[in-house]
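Example 3.2
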Amino acid sequence: MPSLGPRLTQDEIINVVAYVRLLAQQARHENPQRGFMPQPRTMKKFLGEWKQRVRELKTQVYALYLAYQDPRVPWYAKVFTALVVGYAFSPIDLIPDFIPILGYVDDLVLVPLGIALAIRMIPTDVLAEAQAKAREVLVKGKPVNRAAAIAIVIIWLLLAGLTIRFLVGFAR
């Protein structure tokens, strides 16, 4: 099978999606008649803005992690936010990237959608406090959620076991 190009990591895909969404939002605010197309920029300025957007996205995800631990957040928001943050920080994808098209659906659609929904579920004062704390913590380094990685590996093993059981039963 021919190669489709270099493989992107989950973080790289999340960063690109966040940047495209923010560019579209910025373009709509600057010139509503122009639509989604950003103004032409130099490459250096483009990369600088992209790196800034990536830092903002990482701050938002970590702020969600901090916010879902707050007792003022409703239980349903805590559960949903914990799932989104666990998946975003997980080094393992629910849908592996080597599966054509579907492998990137979770990175391009599900993760940004989950982050946007989680942000809307959390009270604004709690989110503001968490964002301030996240900025301070992220200066020191990037957190990794190993529990989420273990949970996703268990899900994959269960699915593999069910598939094998189905195929063995189907072959008889």
